[in-house]
Amino acid sequence: EPVMEFIGVSKIYPLSSENVTALSDISLKVFSGEFIAIMGPSGSGKSTLLNMMGCLDVPSKGDVYIRGRSIKSLSDDQLTTLRRDELGFIFQQFNLIPLLNALENVRYPLILKNGMTASRERCQEILSAVGLAPALWNHRPNQLSGGQQQRVAIARSLINNPAILLCDEPTGNLDTKTGQAIMALLERLCHDEGKTIIMVTHDPKTAEYAHRVIRIEDGHIQEET
Ligand code: ADP
Ligand code: ADP
């Protein structure tokens, strides 16, 4: 069974001038442990597709299934729980909380789930696993390099042990060498931990880490390689 399935998904933005079809009748299956890159020109629908995969947005037509559950059938609370427990999010701009140090950034989603008993040891384990040196755990984001910040963000995305990681241009703010190190980390999470990784990128070199490329143009899937 796929971990994620789109069946006939369209997204239409009603604008006063004319409707914009951001996604047009998309059907796809994502299987456990896959590493997928989504590529396409600016405005082709990549962000809309990733938002839909992240259950941040609901289809205008069709339905999205996460591990067999129709997102249309879920209440807002159930969707929030599903997003928290099944999905991890990694962004180009890292999106860390500036006033919290690295460890507390990773702990934050665990506090939202478990309250103030949220384990610091678990955060330390995950920070070690993503290769952030203990000397940096009490540094705030502005005291860390871009690559270090992305490691913290990846640790945060893993804290509730999601099956699927959704990555929006994860190397977009990093130099080539640092970007490769981050991609190697994502590859290891896929290979060793069985994480399913779905990544939007416009960079062909970054897309080479993926096992499958979904190309999108004008809201249509062009080809899968
Ligand atoms: P990409 O990420 O590939 O650049 P997007 O998914 O952001 O593409 O956008 C796809 C299309 O949908 C574009 O034409 C864009 O202008 C339009 N669009 C995206 N978000 C909205 C929105 N919130 N309201 C109206 N139109 C939108
Ligand atoms: P990205 O760089 O991730 O592709 P975009 O620049 O496409 O981001 O979009 C940034 C935000 O603006 C998104 O949340 C998208 O939904 C929204 N957006 C994009 N196009 C439009 C539009 N034509 N009208 C309203 N919102 C839009």
UniProtKB/TrEMBL annotation:
<comment type="similarity">
    <text>Belongs to the ABC transporter superfamily.</text>
</comment>
<keyword id="KW-0067">ATP-binding</keyword>
<dbReference type="InterPro" id="IPR027417">
    <property type="entry name" value="P-loop_NTPase"/>
</dbReference>
<dbReference type="GO" id="GO:0016887">
    <property type="term" value="F:ATP hydrolysis activity"/>
</dbReference>
<keyword id="KW-0449">Lipoprotein</keyword>
<protein>
    <submittedName>
        <fullName>Lipoprotein-releasing system ATP-binding protein LolD</fullName>
    </submittedName>
</protein>
<dbReference type="GO" id="GO:0098796">
    <property type="term" value="C:membrane protein complex"/>
</dbReference>
<feature type="domain" description="ABC transporter">
    <location>
        <begin position="4"/>
        <end position="225"/>
    </location>
</feature>
<dbReference type="GO" id="GO:0005524">
    <property type="term" value="F:ATP binding"/>
</dbReference>
<dbReference type="InterPro" id="IPR017911">
    <property type="entry name" value="MacB-like_ATP-bd"/>
</dbReference>
<keyword id="KW-0813">Transport</keyword>
<dbReference type="Pfam" id="PF00005">
    <property type="entry name" value="ABC_tran"/>
</dbReference>
<keyword id="KW-0547">Nucleotide-binding</keyword>
<dbReference type="InterPro" id="IPR017871">
    <property type="entry name" value="ABC_transporter-like_CS"/>
</dbReference>
<dbReference type="InterPro" id="IPR003593">
    <property type="entry name" value="AAA+_ATPase"/>
</dbReference>
<dbReference type="InterPro" id="IPR003439">
    <property type="entry name" value="ABC_transporter-like_ATP-bd"/>
</dbReference>
<dbReference type="GO" id="GO:0022857">
    <property type="term" value="F:transmembrane transporter activity"/>
</dbReference>
